[in-house]
C-alpha cells in the first residue's frame, strides 16, 4: 500500500492526480465515526472560489495564525473530531495518562500529514501532552476543510485546504516552519516533503531538530538514503515498519476490506465461489481468511517457501495460477510484484470472472494489455469495468487494477488510530531519550521505552497488572 | 424477511411506501451482474410523464400486447438480463436440459412477481420449456422499466412499470388474465394478489387452473386460509418454505449481508469488537458466523433451548442481554419477536454503540421509545441516525430499526436464482403430475419429482453420477 | 451409529460379539470423568469365576434384591458415578429442580440399558424424582461391574454383570419384571428387548404400562412395526430421533471424535493434508468442520441436493470420489450407504492413504474386496492394518472399516448426558400426561410439555428469564 | 519446548530421567508411519542383557564398524524407515533432486541426534547426496534399536542403543570421532555434546571442521557462548531458530497436540467448554485456534502488547486470569514464564477444572504448592491426577504440570521432517559456501542459498515455475 506515499514523485504526479480525482467522484458519505473518507466534505459545495491565501480570517480568539478554507466550518469539523475520538481509544488513553506529566512540554512539533479528523485527534493529544504544533497537509486533495477549520478555531496554526496548487503546497509547509520567534525541534512527517524542505531550505534549523517521525514508505526510503549518504544529522523513527502498523494496515484491514470492496462494487455472493488469491503475505492471509469464512473455496499461489508452507498448513490448496485460471470466479492479486495476471491469463478466464488487486500500486494486473482494439470496455458502474472479448466473454475488472481496498472500500478509524498512537509514542520517545541513546540513524520504535515515559507502548500494561492497556473497546471502562 | 410480502395490507401501505421511497434514495449503482437492486434504473431520469396506459407502443415485431414504460429501453434491459444469466447457473442448466423435452408445452402461465432481470431469466426459461406467459408486477415500485421493455420486445406480454398507481396495479393484473382466446392454466404468484383476483373475478377460470406456485409468506398464508375454508379447488406449491429458499434467504444471505450492511453504513472495523446477537435461528447463525470470522467477540441471547444449545456448542457465550448491554459495541436483533431491545437497554448502552435489526420487520427494537423530548436525533447519513442522550452519549441506530439487510445491503442474484429455480420446478411438477397426485391442498416441493420430469430438482444429479447437478459456478463446465 | 442397536439380531450376533471382543482389547483407561468406556473395569482381573447367579450377596442394608458381580466393588463404582455427575449438568439440574415436586412419585420404572456411570446418574435422578426402579443390562458385555455394585449398594435392584450368557441376559430381564407385589408402569428400553419380553411373556402387564421410552434405532423400529400391526397398546416416546440426541451423537460428537480417532490410531498431522469426506449429513458436517479447522484441504462427495448445496456454501469443493481418489491422503466415509469405497477406488489410492469409516456399521468400505491373495495384510497396531499391494503400495485401513468413532475414540459423558436427560424428561412427560394426550402410538418428545411438569425441557429457561437453563458448564452456578 | 535440550545439564539429569521413565510407561503403539514415538520398540522385550559394547556383531556385508543392540533387528527397522519416508516428502524430494549432483561429495559428517526412523531418513539422504556419515545418539533413552540396526546393516557406522549408561554415551560419541584414517569435516549436533567433545578432546580436528549444524536450544546457547568468548573457530548454523522449525514445533504442532493431549488424558468434550489460555505466542495461538474450532469459548491472558492485540483482533476476549478463574473448565499455560498459575488460582478454580501446561518445562503451574497435607492426590490414570480439596472439590492436573504435548501426545513425523530437511540444507549450504561467506559465527539458514546448490530451500520453487517445491503431500506427483 505505498501508492499514497509515492504521490509526490514528479514522474508519477499526473497519474496520481488522475487517480485521486477519480476517487473524489466515488459516492462517499458525509460523516462517519468509524472511517477516514479523504474526499468527504459535506459543506464543500461552497461556491467560494477565493484562494484561502487571499482571505483574511480570524478565529474566535482573534488569532489569524492559520490558513484554512473557511473558519466558519469549525463546528462541523469539531463534531467529526469528537466522533473520531470514540474509535481511537489508545490515543485517548494516552492523552489521559500522560497529560499530568506533560512529557512533550517544550516540544515544538511541525507536522505534515493528511488533515483528517483522525489527525486532529492526534494533534490535540500532542497538545495535551505539552507540545506546541504547527501543521500542513501532505496531500493537496485530502484535507477535510471542516476539520482544518476546527483545529484553527481551537488555536492550532494549520495551513491546509482541499485543492491546493503545488505552489500552495510548499507555501503552506513554509508557513509552518518559517515563523518569527518559533523554531521547531521535532518533525512529524508523512512522505518526507516537510523533512526535505527543512533539510534543503533551513539546514541550520535541521541540525537542531531532536527527532523525526516518519510514517510513509517513501519518506522512510528518503531517510535511509540520507543516512547512507551520511547527511542525516538527526535521529529518525520509522513508524511505517512497526509491527502494529504492518499488521493493521495489511492483515486486519484487508481481512475486512476485501469483502467490503467486492460487495460494494459487485454485490456478488461469496458462498460457494471459487477464488484464487495470488500471494500469501499479510494481505493475502487477510483476504484468504475472510473469503474462506464466507464459504468461498480459496486457492493460493505463492513463491516464497515459508509463506507457501503457511498457506498449506492453513488449509489452502497451493496451485499455479494456470491450473485454476479457467475455473475460478474471482482473481485477487496481493504479491507486490508486477504483471502477476497477464493477458494470457485474462484470455483464459471464464465468463464474468472478477479480477482485482489488493497488493501493490496498479502493477499486478497487466491492465495495459487489455487496451487492444478487439476488446470492448464497458464502464458499468463507478470502479467497475466489463472487458468484453469478441466471443462475448466478459471479465469484470475492478478499479482498473488499482488497489481495491483504497479505491472501493474505506480505512476504518481504528486502523488509523493504531498509526497515530505509534506516531505519538515515537515523538515522546525521541523527545525524552537521554543524550546518545539515538544516533543519527533511522530506528524502529522499541518495545520498551525510556524510563519515565508515561505510557511505554500503546497497549502495554501497567507493571502490576496482567491486563493489557486499552487497545480497543474491549477494555473501555464501563 | 416478510416486509415485502405484507406490503399490500392496507394498514401498512403508507408506512411501506415511505420505506420504499427512502430505499429509492439510497445511492445505488446502475447495473450489477450479481444483485437485485429494485430501485435502480439508469435511464429513469426520463421526463416522460405520460402514463404507459395512455401510450401506443409496438415492439419491433409489431406486437402491442404489452404495457411498459418505454419499449425503446429494451436494449439496456437485455444487457441486464444477460448479465443476470451468469449468476443463475441452475436455471440456465434447467433451460438447457429441459428444453428438448418441452415439459411445459401447453402451459399457459400467468405471473405476478417483481419485474427484475432475475425474473426475466425465469420467464425466458419457462418460455424455453414450452410455456406461454403473461406477466404483471407484484409491487408498484419495484419494476425495472428496461427489463420490462426487453421482455416486451422479445414477445412477452408484460404489463408493469415503476410507479404504478393502485388502480394501475389491478389493471395490469387484469390485462394478464382477461384475454380474448387465451386462458391461463397455471399461476405463479408472489403475494397472492393475482390468485385473489382470479379467485374473486373469474371463479370459472380459477377452477380450471392446474396449479398455483406461491413464493411469499403472505400469499402462502392466504392459500392455507382458503384451503382451511375448503375453497381452494386447485393444488398449490408453497415455495416459501422450501429448505433451499429458507437456507439462502436466511443463513447464507445474512452471513454476508450483516457485514455488508454494517460496513456500508458505519465503515467500522469488526476485529476486536464485542457484539451481542439476539436470537440464534438461521439469521442469527449467519450473523454470528460472519462476525466471529472477522475477529469480533460474539455473545448470543436465545430462549429456544435447542438453538441455545447450538450456540453453545458453536462456541458462543450465551448471556442475558442485560449482562452484556453495557459493554458491547454492536447489538443485532434477529429473534422474530417484538421489543427485544427496550428503552431500558438503550439507556444502558455505552457511547457510540451500534444498534440494528436483521430479524423481523421493524418491531424488534423499540424505536418508538426513543422519540422522546430529552433525546436528540441526528441523521448523519442515509440510514444512519445518532440518538443523543442529555449527557452526550450517542447510540448509532441503523435503518431506524428496519431490516438492515434489506435497507442497507443488497440481495445477491445467486440467492434470487435459488428461488427462481424452485419456482420453475414447482411449475413443471404441478403441470406434469398425474391426475390425483396433488389434491386441492398446499404442498411443499418434493425432493423426488414425477418420472419423466427432466430435472427433478435444481441440484439433483443424474442417476449415474455422484456429482450434484450444477447449483453454482463450481460445476459450470469449463 | 446403529451398530450397537442391531446387536441382538440373531444373524448378526456372532459378528458383533467378535467386534465387541476386539473392542475390549483396546488399551483403555480406568476412570474418566468425561467419557463412557464400556469395557473399562479396573478391578476386573478378579479370578472369581463363580456366576453371580450362584452367589449370595447382601448390601450393607441387608437387601439381596439384586444380582451383580461383586457388591464389594461398590465404593469404586460410587466414585465413578460422582465423577460422571460433574459432566451431566442438565440431569443434575433436573434432579435439583424437580425433586421437591416428585413428578415421578408412584412411577415404577423397569429399565434395560447399558449399565455405566452415566446410567447410574440417570437412575439416581429418577429415584430422586420419586420413581422406583428395577434395572437390567441391554448388552452382555457392557456392564461396569463396579457401577452395578454401587447401585445395588444404594438400594437399586440391579441385575447385570459383564460377560453374561444369553441365558443370563433374559434371566436378568425377567428378574426385573417378574416380582412379587411390584408391577412396573413405565418402561425405559434401549434395543427393545425388555419391551419385547414383557409384550410376549406378560401381555396383561404390558397393557397396564403407562408409557415406553425407547432410545435405539432398533427398538424404535420395532415399536413402529408393533404400532403398524395395531398391537402397540401403550404410548411410546422415540428418544432416538430427538433433535438434541441427533445433533450430539452426530454433529458435535463426530466433530471431535474424527480427530481423536485418527490421532490415536495414526498420530498423523492434519495440517496440509488432503481429505475427501463422503457424505455431508450431520456426521460429514462434523468431520469436515474439524479437519478444515486443523488446516486440512477437504473435498466432499454428496448426492443429496440439499446437503450438496450446504457443502458448497460452507466452502467445500464438491467432487466425485474418482476425481480426487489419486491425490488424497485420507478417505472418510459417512454416507450411510453400502460400498461407497470400492476395490477400484482402493486400487487407485496413493501410497499410505488412510481409509476409515464414520458412517454406518461396517458396510461403507468394501473391505471384503481386500481379502484377496495378491494383497498382504499387516496389523501394525490395534485397529490399524496396512494392506499392501504387489508393487509395495500400502493403504492404512482403520478398524477394518468399522466405525472409527466407536472403535478408536470414546463417547464423552457430556454427549451421553444429553440422551439421559431426554430419557428422564420423556418418562416425566408420559407419566404425567393427562388421559388422552398420547394415544397408542410412537411420539417424539414435544418442545413444550404438560403444565405442572417441573422442568419442561433440559435446556428450557424459566418463564421469567431470557437465560437458558443449564445445558453445560457455562451456566453452572459459581 | 526446551525440555529435551536441557537434558544433560547435570543438575537436571535425575529429574529428566524420571520423566523419561514415566514417558516410557505410557501405552504406546508399535510402529507409526506418522509419528515419532521415542520409547517404542516392539522387540525390546528381549531378555538379552549383554552390553552391546561386549558383543561381536557383523552386518551382512561383513562390516563390524558399528555398535547397536542387535543387528538382527535390521529388517524391522528398515520397515519403519520406509514408512517414515512417506511422511517426509521434502527430504525425499531433496534426495531425488540433489543426488545427481552430489553436493555433499567429500563431506564427512559426524552426527549426534536421536536415533529414530526420521533420523535414518535424514542420514540416508545425506548419504545419497555424497556424504560419509558416522552417528551417535544424543540421548541415552531415545534410540530405536531396530532403526539403529537397519542403519548399521546398510553400512552406516552407528553407535547407539536404548539404555546407554553415561559412560556408554561418551564412548559412542568418541567411536564416531576418533577413527583411524577418517576425519570429520562437518558436525550435525543436537544438544552440543558432540561439539563440546570434539572441541575439548580434539582441538586440532575442531579447527578443520567446515561447519556445525545445531538444532537444540541448549546447543545453540553453547555456540553463542563460544562465539562470545572468541573460541568458535568454525561457522555454525542455528537450525533451532529457523522460521519453519519455530512455526512447526509451536503453532502447527500445538494446534493439534492440545486437542490430542486433552482427549487422550480426559476424553472430555470440547464443545461449549470455557477455556482460558495463558499466553498468546505461537503455542497459545495454536491452542486457541484449535479449541475455538471445536466450539470452546476461549479467553486469553497476555502481557505482551503486540500479542495481546493479535488475540484481540483474532476474536478472543482478553482477561486477567483472576477474572475468569472461577468459571472456566480448562486452564492452559503457554507463557514461558514461571508460576503463571498459582496456588491461589488453584484454590479458586471450580470443581473438576482441568489444568495443564503447553509452555515451558514444568514451571508454569506452581505444582509444588499443591503438595500440602490438606490436599489429597489421586492418580486416576497415567498422566492424570485428581487433586482434592477438603470440601471435596477436585482439580484435574495433567502430566503433573509438565509439557502436555510431550507427555500425553506424539510429535508427527511431518513436523520432524521439517527440521530434518532444514538440517540437510544447512549442511549443504555450509559445505558448499565459498570461502569467506560464513565467518566464525552462528548463522541462521539464509532464504536464498549459494549458486549451484541444488535445492536452495526445502520448499523453494525452480526459477521458472510459480509452484512451490513439494513441502507436503499436496504436491506429491500422482
- Counting helices, strands and paired strands, the structural category of chain A is alpha/beta
Distance between the ends of chain A: 36 Å
Walk across the major sheet of chain A and give the strand order.
Answer: 10-9-8-11-12-15-14-13
Q: Tally of extended strands of chain A?
A: 17
Principal-axis shape of chain A: globular
- Pick out the low-confidence regions of chain A: 1-34, 36-45, 450-478
Q: How much helicity do the residues of chain A have?
A: 25-40%
- What would you call the quaternary organization? homotetramer
Share of β-strand residues of chain A: 5-15%
The profile of the biggest β sheet of chain A is: 8 strands, mixed
Specify Rg of chain A, calculated over alpha carbons: 23 Å
- Overall average pLDDT of chain A: 83
Give me the number of helical elements of chain A: 16
Which chains have the largest interface? A-B, 58 and 57 residues
Amino acid at each position: 500500500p505505498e501508492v499514497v506515499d509515492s504521490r509526490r514523485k514528479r514522474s508519477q504526479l499526473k497519474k496520481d492526480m488522475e487517480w485521486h480525482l477519480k476517487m473524489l467522484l466515488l459516492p462517499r458519505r458525509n460523516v462517519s465515526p468509524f472511517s477516514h473518507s479523504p474526499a468527504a466534505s459535506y459543506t464543500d459545495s461552497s461556491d467560494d472560489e477565493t484562494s484561502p491565501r487571499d482571505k483574511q480570517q480570524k478565529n474566535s480568539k482573534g488569532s489569524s495564525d492559520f490558513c484554512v478554507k473557511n473558519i466558519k466550518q469549525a463546528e462541523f469539523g469539531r463534531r467529526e473530531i469528537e466522533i473520531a475520538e470514540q474509535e481511537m481509544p489508545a490515543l485517548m488513553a494516552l492523552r489521559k495518562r500522560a497529560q499530568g506529566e506533560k512529557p512533550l512540554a517544550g516540544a515544538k512539533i511541525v507536522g505534515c500529514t493528511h488533515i483528517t479528523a483522525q489527525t486532529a485527534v492526534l494533534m490535540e493529544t500532542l497538545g495535551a501532552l505539552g507540545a506546541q504544533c504547527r501543521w500542513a497537509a501532505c496531500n493537496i486533495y485530502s484535507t477535510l476543510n471542516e476539520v482544518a477549520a476546527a483545529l484553527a478555531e481551537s488555536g492550532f496554526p494549520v495551513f491546509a485546504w482541499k485543492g491546493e496548487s503545488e505552489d500552495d503546497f510548499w507555501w503552506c509547509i513554509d508557513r509552518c516552519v518559517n515563523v518569527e520567534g518559533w523554531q521547531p525541534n521535532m518533525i512529524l512527517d508523512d512522505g518526507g516533503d516537510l523533512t526535505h524542505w527543512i533539510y534543503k531550505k533551513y539546514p541550520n534549523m535541521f541540525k537542531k531538530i531532536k527527532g523525526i517521525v516518519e510514517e510513509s514508505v517513501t519518506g522512510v526510503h528518503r531517510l535511509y538514503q540520507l543516512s547512507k549518504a551520511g547527511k542525516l544529522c538527526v535521529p529518525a523513527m520509522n513508524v511505517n515498519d512497526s509491527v502494529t502498523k504492518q499488521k493493521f494496515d495489511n492483515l486486519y484491514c484487508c481481512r475486512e476490506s476485501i469483502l467490503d470492496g467486492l460487495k460494494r462494487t459487485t454485490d456478488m455472493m461469496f458462498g460457494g465461489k471459487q477464488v484464487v488469491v495470488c500471494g500469501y503475505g499479510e494481505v493475502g492471509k487477510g483476504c484468504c481468511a475472510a473469503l474462506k469464512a464466507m464459504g468461498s473455496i480459496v486457492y493460493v499461489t505463492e513463491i516464497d517457501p515459508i509463506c507457501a508452507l503457511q498457506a498449506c498448513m492453513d488449509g489452502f490448496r497451493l496451485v499455479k495460477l494456470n491450473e485454476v485460471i479457467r475455473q475460478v470466479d474471482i482473481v485477487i492479486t496481493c504479491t507486490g510484484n508486477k504483471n502477476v495476471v497477464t493477458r494470457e491469463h485474462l484470455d483464459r478466464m471464464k465468463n464474468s470472472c472478477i479480477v482485482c488487486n489488493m497488493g501493490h500500486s496498479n502493477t499486478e494486473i497487466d491492465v495495459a494489455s487489455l487496451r487492444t482494439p478487439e476488446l470492448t470496455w464497458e464502464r458499468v458502474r463507478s470502479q467497475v469495468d466489463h472487458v468484453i472479448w469478441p466471443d462475448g466473454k466478459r471479465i469484470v475488472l475492478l478499479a482498473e487494477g488499482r488497489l481495491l481496498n483504497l479505491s472501493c472500500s474505506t480505512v476504518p478509524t481504528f486502523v488509523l488510530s493504531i498509526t497515530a498512537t505509534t506516531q505519538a509514542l515515537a515523538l515522546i520517545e525521541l523527545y525524552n531519550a537521554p543524550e546518545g541513546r539515538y544516533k543519527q540513524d533511522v530506528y524502529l520504535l522499541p518495545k520498551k521505552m525510556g524510563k519515565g515515559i508515561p505510557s511505554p507502548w500503546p497497549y502495554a500494561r501497567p507493571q502490576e497488572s496482567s491486563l493489557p492497556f486499552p487497545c480497543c473497546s474491549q477494555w473501555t471502562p464501563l
